[in-house]
């Protein structure tokens, strides 16, 4: 996994978790859902890069 992609994945995950927390605190379910989506995107990016790394010698 390249360092920039790893950082991007972690950033998406952090943004997602923060959005979920703010959404829960304010009772904004739409923001909670957006947070879940951002976190899932970060998880998917991280998984994709891990698979790419597995195939490398």
Would you tell me the overall average pLDDT?
A: 91
How many E-type strands?
A: 0
- Class by SSE composition: mainly alpha
Net shape: elongated
**C-alpha-based Rg, rounded:** 13 Å
Q: What's the N-to-C terminus distance?
A: 13 Å
Q: Could you name the ranges where pLDDT drops below 50 across 5 or more consecutive residues? A: none
Strand count, sense and barrel status of the largest sheet are:
none
SSE ordering: HH
User: Total helix count?
Assistant: 2
Strand content: under 5%
Amount of helix: over 70%
Structure commentary:
By secondary structure, this protein is an all-alpha fold. It has helices spanning 3-26, 29-54. It is elongated. The two termini are 13 Å apart.
